[in-house]
Write a structure and sequence with these properties.
With about 290 residues, the protein is of the alpha+beta class. The chain contains eight helices and nine strands. It has two domains: about 10-105, Phosphorylase Kinase, domain 1 (2-Layer Sandwich); about 115-285, Aminoglycoside phosphotransferase (APH), C-terminal lobe (Aminoglycoside 3'-phosphotransferase, Chain: A, domain 2, Alpha-Beta Complex), CATH 3.90.1200. Strand 7 and strand 8 form a beta hairpin. Helix 3 (about 115-130) crosses helix 6 (about 230-240), helix 4 packs across helix 7 and helix 5 runs antiparallel to helix 6 (about 230-240). The model has no long low-confidence stretch (mean pLDDT about 95). Pfam families: APH. This is Aminoglycoside phosphotransferase domain-containing protein.
Length: about 290
Amino acid sequence: MPQRPVDLTAALAWASSEVGSPVLTSEPLEGGLTSSMLALRHADGSESVLRLMTDEPWRTHGAELTARERDAQLAMAGTPVPAPTSLALDADGAVAGVAAHLMSRLPGSATGEPDDHVTRAMADLLVTIHAQRPPHPFRTFQSWALPAKWEVPGWSRRPESWRRAFGLLAGPAPAYEPTFLHRDFSHRNLLWSDGAISGVVDWVETSTGPAWLDAAHAASNLAVAHDVLPARAFLEAYADAAGGRGEAYWLVMDAVGFLPPPGRPPMFGRPEQLARLDSWLHEVVAQVG
């Protein structure tokens, strides 16, 4: 069945109705990798954010993803975790032709270089997230290091480390204590205001799984975007805040998950990003006993 075209006019009318105030302006937000994210300003002075699941393969799974984000935001309401408030959901895309989730807009903006203050604040917030106990458990986490990705990338200068990583992932995973996970926790999904974290966004992958996997994903993102030094600093800060380190297996799983499926370009594909991923995978594989 062919997909319906996205009806932005209908989506904005729906947002106006749900908030109870017309949308005056709509501006794209930077950073969205899976969706079109729009910042809306309403006639009553309020602001909201509209997620439209426009990009594949996430569009195909938009109903599940947006419903999960809504449920996660509802679960975080009243907790110390600064998550947006879910305002309305059109998971089936009846209005705009794609799954849509309307939520409150939190104050703040992205941070710059991840210094010690940033990595410590990230670690403390992640421990707070992991301490939450939603009344209904979320799905068991999905690995993004699918076997179809287990091909040594042609740009790697350390092919043996990748082969070792694939061999590790082919074996059994370590036992873990099931924990509430954001599952896409990273500096890219944090807002900052006056030197403190004012918001954590993008809850579509919320899951239950090993806490160290959430930490691993934050570290991998720091390594790819910046360097291995802030990635190490974050893991040390998280281990200190959480009271111990996790299995290196989860670090390897997350790093391998950054490889694209066969036939698709890497999501983070600039030469310097690929080189930093190569270095990070080499480092975390070396930690495996």
